[in-house]
Amino acid sequence: MVTTPLLPSDYLDLVSPLRAGADLRGRIEAVHPETGDAATLVIRPGRGWRGHAAGQYVRIGVDVDGRRLWRSYSLTSPPHRRDGRITITVKAIPGGKVSNHLVRRAKPGTLVQLDQATGDFVLPQTKPAKVLYLTAGSGITPVMSMLRDIALDDVVMIHCAPQPQDVIFRKELHGLVADGRLRLTEVHTDADGRLDLARLDELVPDWAERETWACGPAGLLDAAEELWSAHGVRERLHTERFRPGTVVAGDGGDGGGGGEVTFSTTGKTVDADGATPLLDVGEEAGVLMPSGCRMGICFGCVTPLREGAVRDLRTGEITEAAPGVLIQTCVSAAAGPCDIER
Ligand code: FES
User: Which atom of ligand 1 lies nearest, measured to the CA of 290?
Assistant: First the structure.
């Protein structure tokens, strides 16, 4: 039998896992259900935590069925909470290993790995005079941290969710409305259909004058970018793109059906659908895949595409292999057979 000698830090980890100098970890101290499929996790970060700005996200590493998996979540707590704890609010997505684990099975006392907070979806130093938040689904999470951080004078929010009971933080939002700190329009997409930005003039007549933070599915953000550009106010729009977690296989039209993926360096070949990120496909197959934010921001997962084609899960765009072509595996799925250099 081969044993690994334990280092002094291993013993210290047992008694004081959140100490300064240890790998950055956090301890889940409470789990509060928010909606039927979302929960807020209250985490006490270790001594090395450097804090965050409202709107940033954090990567957390969780052990699920014996494997460490990393995902990024927006921080929903305001910076500098007096008790030093942070919160993330997680929505369980169908088939999402980590999100379902965190929402339904995470227990107080559990340790998670943490990275430092990052991201530039934040408010500027100088408070903007008029703000619009445009959010859908769990896109509300980074904005919630902003709302909880500083009171702005003139804030309007449009938030989309299938039904009223799916609106995360609904009670708190309505409290802000009652206090006169927020004007809120909820769009319930099951009844009203998707938000058509042509309605913006009617909902928020002065939208073009507002500094806007938008977070939600790619379709909404693409439409917003187009509209803001057409009005010459693109620089007032700040967007944060989440990796789509609920794309249905075959959804993307051409090539949406996936294909056989070869990881040529490792010599593994597996079948992949057209909706699962190649990063997940590789990890599932036991291939060592580099990664970072897992949501298309950090480029930590970039890998050469040797053959075949992949589809960008955010835009539907197809990229075909050619010498020098690199893909972000966290936001790309197989669009037919392909060969990834891993
Ligand atoms: S892991 Fe960050 S861009 Fe893919």
Answer: 1
Expressed in angstroms and rounded, the spacing between residue 31 Cα and the centre of ligand 1 is 27
Average pLDDT score over residue span 99-124: 93
Give pLDDT, residue 94: 75
Distance (angstroms) between ligand 1 centre and the Cα of 274 equals 18
Give 301's pLDDT tier (boundaries 50, 70, 90). very high
Residue in 133, 134, 155, 171 with CA at minimum distance from that of residue 40: 171
To the question of pTM greater than 0.90 for the whole model, the response is: no
| Joined tokens for residue 148 | 């909880």
Say if CB 249 and CB 313 are below 8 A apart. no
Given a contact cutoff of 8 angstroms between Cβ atoms, the answer to whether 256 and 311 are in contact is: yes
The tokens describing 271, both together, are 């079948």
Write out pLDDT tens, residues 58-70. 989 888 877 777 7
Q: Which residues line ligand 1 (CB under 6 A)?
A: 291-294, 296-301, 328, 330
Strands 155-161 and 131-136: parallel
For 326, phi and psi rounded to 5 degrees?
Answer: -115, 145
Cα of 75 vs its chain's centroid, Å: 10
What is the sign of the dihedral through the CA atoms of 319, 320, 326 and 328? Answer: positive
Q: Which residue has the tokens 């999402």?
A: 96
Q: CA-to-CA distance for 16 and 107, rounded, in angstroms? A: 19
